[in-house]
UniProtKB/TrEMBL annotation:
Matching InterPro entries: Adenine_glyco, DNA-3mA_glycosylase, DNA_glycosylase, Tag
Organism domain of life: Bacteria
Record protein name field: DNA-3-methyladenine glycosylase I
NCBIfam families, alphabetized: tag
SUPFAM superfamilies: DNA-glycosylase (SSF48150)
Length: 205
């Protein structure tokens, strides 16, 4: 099928990860597997914002540099960044030197702290928007969904930046809020099992 390929190890995977062994490693070990850790969720939504207009491989290759630049995406620390930090990061060749996205990450760290006070955790908030899908049906190729549009709208209302519906849907896919591995991909069964075993944050219906 066009949405999968057979890699050198004989395993069938989603076709998008064929371009690089970095993609394959990311696909096999991270993409589509549920995450509840607030720091990882914050990192991912920020990196998806940086990815806007670029390839994810560009971000993936620079991810360790981003972590070093943004205090491992500890939002409590990033929220304290100043204009001096913005100027420092704009000169950091190891990351994407986009002033707007850098400033947005600092802004979003402040919004994350507010959200935790309001919602208890980032996980409790994000997982409230989990799309409802039949995992026995081949995932559609789509850039947004009803839930990502709703989540994006609500986050913008709360003051978050660079969180459009497409960015948010990519975040949902990566964090395992939806299983978009192709049915014949080795990751589909793993994602389905982990999602079945996953304990959603308390307070969700």
């Amino acid at each position: 099928m066009a949405n999968t390929f057979k890699a050198e190890d004989g395993k069938v995977r989603c076709s998008w990860c064929a371009a690089s062994h970095f993609y394959i490693d990311y696909h096999d070990n991270e993409w589509g597997y549920p995450v509840i850790d607030d720091q990882r969720l914050f990192e991912k939504i920020c990196l998806e914002g940086f990815q806007s207009g670029l390839s994810w491989l560009t971000i993936l290759n620079k991810r360790e540099n981003f972590r070093a630049a943004f205090a491992d995406f500890d939002f409590n620390r990033v929220a304290k960044f100043t204009e001096q930090d913005v100027e420092r990061l704009v000169l950091d060749a190891g990351i994407i030197r986009h002033r707007g996205k850098i400033s947005a990450t600092i802004n979003n760290a402040k919004r994350a702290k507010e959200m935790i006070k309001q919602e208890g955790s980032l996980a409790a908030y994000f997982w409230r928007f989990e799309p409802k899908r039949d995992e026995s049906i081949e995932p559609e190729v789509m850039a947004t969904c009803e839930e990502s549009i709703a989540l994006s709208k609500d986050m913008k209302k709360r003051g978050w930046k660079f969180v459009g519906p497409t960015t948010v849907y990519a975040f949902m896919q990566a964090m395992g809020m939806v299983n978009d591995h192709a049915l014949t991909c080795v990751g589909h069964t793993k994602s389905k099992q982990l999602r079945n075993e996953f304990t959603r944050p308390s307070g969700l219906l």
